[in-house]
Design a protein that fits this description.
Blueprint (H helix, E strand, L loop, with lengths): L2 E4 L9 H10 L5 E6 L11 H8 L6 E6 L7 H6 L4 E5 L6 H10 L3 E6 L17 E5 L14 H14 L5 E5 L7 H7 L3 E4 L1 H4 L4 H11 L1
Parallel strand pairs: 1-8, 2-3, 3-4, 4-5, 5-6, 6-7, 7-8
The chain binds D-xylitol-5-phosphate and zinc ion (ZN).
Length: about 220
């Protein structure tokens, strides 16, 4: 079954407690947590303390997206804090294979993310070692940006490679996804849909998630 992962930091930051309850009630499959360091991306969010706090509040699996430079420095902290899926950027580390292996060894599911300008060919070698590939459909750093439509070709291309190799790798797509375009993303081959403003910018999260699910 395809999964919907609300990006929690697009919610009301002064009332995350309530936002988590609401997306739980709305039937979210995962909670996507964006970690930004102000170096890899031009924005700063929070550290593993936030993951720990969310973990203590809910049993929904946590999908932690590290938009940080040299993520190998903090892998252990994020996993100890309760990350179930830990995704690092191909562009953020020189030793991608080592990082991915470490994530698995420490008990989380490893994911690799690529920015809009990074070609699929850059993850050919790591594909067999990760559970998830996250295709960024906006330039990482901010919620509320326009979906980059050429991402759909990347999703289709990756989908073909995964089938040809008979892998189980899930394709996750992140950035600019709303009820209106979720079908295009899903039809291209996405298995996990991340949505920030597309959910938290609406009045009724439950209704929005249900509408999205109908279109998957
Ligand atoms: C972007 C983040 C996304 C973002 C999604 O850097 O990785 O997860 O919060 O927000 P929307 O869906 O509003 O583009
Ligand atoms: Zn993200």
């Amino acid at each position: 079954m395809k999964k919907i992962a609300p990006s929690i930091l697009s919610g009301n930051l002064l009332n995350l407690d309530r936002e988590i309850e609401l997306i739980e009630e709305a039937g979210a499959d995962l909670i996507h947590v964006d970690i930004m360091d102000g170096i890899f991306v031009p924005n700063i969010t929070a550290g593993w303390g936030l993951v720990d706090a969310i973990r203590n509040k809910t049993d929904i699996p946590l999908d932690v997206h590290l938009m940080i430079d040299r993520p190998e420095r903090y892998i252990e902290d994020f996993i100890n804090s309760g990350a179930n899926i830990l995704t690092v950027h191909q562009e953020g580390t020189i030793h991608l294979h080592r990082v991915v292996e470490k994530i698995r060894e420490l008990g989380a599911s490893p994911g690799v993310a690529i920015n809009p300008a990074t070609p699929i060919s850059f993850i050919q070698e790591i594909l067999n070692y990760v559970d998830i590939v996250l295709i960024m459909s906006v330039n990482p750093g901010f919620s509320g940006q326009e979906f980059i439509y050429s991402s759909l070709f990347k999703i289709e291309k990756l989908c073909k490679i995964i089938s040809a190799r008979q892998l189980e790798t899930l394709i996750e797509v992140d950035g600019g996804i709303k009820v209106l375009n979720v079908a295009d993303v899903s039809n291209s081959g996405a298995g996990i849909i991340v949505s920030g403003s597309g959910i938290f910018g609406t009045d009724n999260y439950k209704e929005t998630i249900e509408l999205m699910r109908e279109r998957l």
